[in-house]
Write a structure and sequence with these properties.
The complex is a heterodimer of chains A (322) and B (264).
Chain A lengths: L6 E11 L13 E12 L4 E5 L6 H8 L7 E6 L2 E2 L4 H6 L1 E5 L10 H11 L5 H11 L15 H13 L5 E5 L7 H18 L2 E5 L3 H7 L2 E6 L2 E6 L1 H6 L3 E10 L1 H10 L3 E5 L2 E7 L3 H10 L3 E8 L3 H15 L1
Parallel strand pairs in A: 3-8, 3-9, 6-7, 7-8
Antiparallel strand pairs in A: 1-2, 1-4, 4-5, 9-10, 11-13, 11-14, 12-13
Helix pairs in contact in A: 3-4, 5-6
Chain B lengths: L5 H17 L1 H26 L7 H31 L3 H5 L5 H31 L10 H26 L4 H6 L19 H8 L2 H15 L4 H32 L1 H5 L1
The chains are: A alpha/beta (322), B mainly alpha (264).
Chain lengths: 322, 264
């Protein structure tokens, strides 16, 4: 039996009209297509990353799923229900956290969570607020106003907010972007643990590719409002099929560059290291050529393509084709 | 139609009450201008009273100011929470919870009523203290009169909420100014009859003008003019329905244009 996905996005498009003078009744402004006929599903318990360069349509997509923007065309179903008709019911079981939104700065941590528990209609709100403060170690800051907290603590509070109502589905919009690496790692670990504990379905956006690689089961890559790739982080990285080999050449740099040129590969010399980019299947031939031409090296490392490589290459390739 | 999330309404009320407790200016704002008006016009009318105009000028002015504070307070307290959420960049957090514009409006109406009761009680006490003016000289009929004034304030408040949602911050100064469009036509201290013809036409479709005229009739003759009151209520209901529809439409457009995000 096919299990119904938690989120079903079908053929959604969002067109904004650039401003036209207010006295003109007809929309004469230029059309801007922010999201262009995209469809995807998210299964229960899955963490899906929404990636893409700035202006790709990630935030608009998230905002449409949150009901903050109405799609021009298409449908969004969450928990099997139409978002337009069952918005409140869906939002009662969902949550959202973003670096770009703020909780009221002149309310304390506890007051903010008390208010949010009421807004979400959480049963026994006082007890739940105490529980969630414990989970996110917020007890020591409970009587501090938000404007007195560091960005790390504010992110913790946002995280506590996002798990407050036992949501079945959470949207995270760059949740760790304002954090130092250690705090970001702590937050990532907490997301992974809580996801396991509550089987929460998560839609995640970030510009940190390593983070997406670590957290996400699947990645949807958006470019200029369209989905151009969808796979696991490893699957996307594998699509690159180009590996990077870094060598500290002892003798034969000229010969190495000549080998690279003859085979139409590419190479970059940076200080003592030379990085050669070649198709993955050509690695054995490259290594035998090194021996054949008597090129000696003291260090060698072969880096497999990463999600970041996919991101950079795809974005560059697309820009060129435009 | 979806069920009202009463827990959400309570959440919004508590959120703003926390702010009142911390931000003195939210409280001072509700009392300051009305108090200054009361003192200024009270003193002015006390001065004019020397010329024996044949009616209780102090009561007309003080009553007018207290009654006008009801309209102003009920309008401002609808708009203030929305602006407060926008200034706090909390609109997205708010509207991604299971509360909608309807719950938000209900909460702001309740918040407005609480603050209005405090403001009017304070002004009435001050008027009694400074000018021996007793607001209860109008008797229980003050309740329907205030109800009508509150409805006018709500109608204007809902329209301003709609404009803020649709046009954002650039409209916020309008929030404080819009109500004053009806001020000259409300006959707060002078009768409608002394207005020029064109202004009288506008005054006749302004619900507050009937209430202020009625206030003076009660003062001068002790008679409450029910037809005037009912005309005012009739106009109020029409305006309130139109204002609610306008707000709903502006909210839809704001969602369509992504205006909530820009406001955040």
């Amino acid at each position: 039996m096919r299990v119904r996905p938690i989120v079903e996005v079908k053929n959604i498009t969002k067109i904004f009209f650039q401003k036209s003078p207010f006295w003109k009744i007809r929309k004469t402004g230029k059309k801007v297509i922010a999201v262009d006929d995209i469809s995807f599903d998210i299964k229960e318990g899955e963490i899906v990353g929404l990636l893409g360069p700035n202006g790709a349509g990630k935030t608009t997509t998230i905002q449409m799923i949150l009901g903050l923007i109405t799609p021009t065309r298409g449908t969004i179903r969450v928990f099997g229900r139409d978002l337009r008709k069952f918005r409140k019911e869906i939002l009662k079981n969902s949550n959202f956290s973003s670096t770009y939104t703020h909780l009221p700065w002149n309310l304390t941590v506890r007051e903010n969570l008390n208010v949010l528990a009421l807004l979400y209609g959480v049963e026994n709100p006082g007890k739940r607020v105490n529980e969630i403060m414990k989970v996110f170690s917020l007890e020591e800051k409970k009587d501090r106003e938000v404007n007195e907290l560091s960005s790390g603590w504010v992110t913790r509070l946002n995280m506590a907010k996002s798990f407050l109502n036992f949501p079945r589905f959470i949207l995270f919009d760059e949740p760790t972007s304002s954090l130092d690496p250690e705090s970001a790692d702590t937050i990532r670990t907490e997301i992974i643990n809580l996801r396991k504990k509550y089987k929460t379905t998560i839609l995640f956006t970030s510009h940190n590719m390593a983070e997406v690689d670590q957290i996400c089961d699947r990645v949807i890559f958006l470019y200029q409002g369209k989905i151009i790739a969808e796979d696991t982080p490893e699957g996307l990285a594998r699509r690159i099929k180009i590996s990077r080999i870094s060598l500290m050449v002892g003798d034969g740099l000229k010969r190495l560059l000549s080998v690279v040129r003859d085979n139409l590969w590419s190479a970059r010399v940076q200080g003592r290291y030379t990085t050669v980019e070649i198709p993955e299947k050509e690695i054995p031939r490259f290594l035998s050529l090194l021996a054949e031409k008597g090129i000696s090296y003291r260090e060698i490392s072969i880096d497999k393509p990463t999600l970041e490589d996919f991101f950079l290459l795809t974005a560059r390739k697309r820009r060129k084709t435009l | 139609m979806e069920k009202i999330n009463w827990s959400g309404v309570k959440g919004i009320i508590i959120r703003h009450m926390y702010t009142w407790r911390r931000d003195l200016d939210r409280i001072v704002d509700a009392f300051w201008w009305a108090t200054m008006d009361l003192i200024f016009w009270g003193l002015t009318s006390s001065y004019i009273e020397q010329y024996n105009l044949g009616f209780d000028i102090v009561a007309v002015f003080i009553g007018g100011i207290i009654f006008w504070s009801v309209v102003l307070g009920s309008q401002r307290e609808i708009n203030m929470p929305l602006l407060d959420e926008a200034w706090n960049r909390n609109l997205i957090n708010l509207f991604t919870t299971p509360v909608g514009i309807f719950e938000f409006v209900i909460a702001t109406l309740i918040l407005g009523m609480i603050k209005l009761i405090l403001t009017i009680s304070f002004l009435s006490f001050l008027a009694y203290l400074l000018y021996h003016f007793n607001i209860f000289r109008y008797g229980l009929l003050i309740i329907p009169s205030f109800a009508s004034l509150i409805l006018t304030g709500w109608s204007v408040g809902l329209i301003i909420d709609g404009l803020i949602l649709r046009y954002g911050y650039k409209i916020q100064s309008f929030a404080w100014a819009m109500l004053f469009v009806i001020y000259p036509f409300s006959a707060v201290v002078y009768p409608v009859d002394i207005l020029p013809r064109w202004a009288q036409v506008i005054a006749r479709i302004t619900p507050t003008s009937y209430i202020f005229e009625n206030m003076r009739e009660v003062l001068f003759s002790g008679i409450f003019n029910w037809p005037k009151f009912l005309t005012s209520m009739f106009l109020n209901f029409i305006y309130l329905i139109l204002a609610a529809l306008f707000l709903k439409r502006m909210y839809r457009i704001a969602l369509d244009k992504g205006q909530l995000i820009k406001l955040n």
